[in-house]
């Protein structure tokens, strides 16, 4: 496990985030996601990288170099209730430029209108679309927050169905336990082991609402909803990124422990004072750049890329 001290740039971002109330209702969440999507679509891409519509549900997209060396299926964040594939475009474009990989970000149905298993079904369809298109599975699977939990649940489902698995996975601030009451989660450490503070981005009550919306009538301990309760055998080499200033720190640590207990290859980077999904939410900080470099190295290593 790597622990990285915070930069001045990250401290400024976190201070700004802490000055504003966390998102606490679905309407606000969706409005912010829409604004973020518009900004992402308007932002320039790195040289040699393009964003094109992807197969499957409307809104899916592929961010790719001219001659991609493989494809990563990447699932967006948003608590299963908000978000779009375009929200992760800046991050996936950075990784596409660093690795030569294409990043296929599929749209999936959102709760409460479409509770579990809709998102997981849609993720599986996207996975099988890539499998049928090339005859091979995606080289890797990844995701952030709810998308990270969804990526892990997808890996378990395709393994159990006997489909070929990817060679690597990347999870950023994964939400893997929707059964544990957010208010009861251990607060994330801020400066030291005895100093505690709130997550600057996530309202515990709203997180609980999102969990109820997504689970619907399903037991939240079902591994499809909360993959921390699933079996970790035979899963691919996985890299996990998380910050200490987030309620989902425990989810990431427990996930890494479950991989290790099953004898699977796993690396975990814990970044001091970094907020939720910091490689996405703090893109102009040294921490985000370092996380992208770690993820790119993980992908290059396990996909045998030069």
Write the layout of secondary structure elements.
Blueprint: E1 2-4, H1 8-18, H2 26-42, E2 49-53, E3 61-65, E4 71-75, H3 89-99, E5 102-105, H4 118-134, E6 140-144, H5 146-160, E7 168-172, H6 204-215, E8 237-243, H7 249-261, E9 266-271, H8 278-281, H9 286-302
Parallel strand pairs: 1-9, 4-5, 4-6, 6-7, 7-8, 8-9
Antiparallel strand pairs: 2-3, 3-5
Helix pairs in contact: 3-9, 4-5
Short précis:
This protein has 306 residues and is α/β, with parallel strands linked by helices.
Give a verbal description of the structure.
With 306 residues, the chain is α/β, with parallel strands linked by helices. The chain has 9 helices and 9 strands. Strands 1-9-8-7-6-4-5-3-2 form a 9-stranded mixed beta sheet, with helices on both faces. Helix 3 links the parallel strand 4 (71-75) and strand 5 (102-105).
Please tell me the total number of domains. Answer: 1
For the largest beta sheet, what order do the strands appear in spatially? 1-9-8-7-6-4-5-3-2
Shape: globular
Largest sheet: 9 strands, mixed
Q: Uncertain spans, ≥5 residues at pLDDT below 50?
A: 187-197
- Specify the helix fraction band: 25-40%
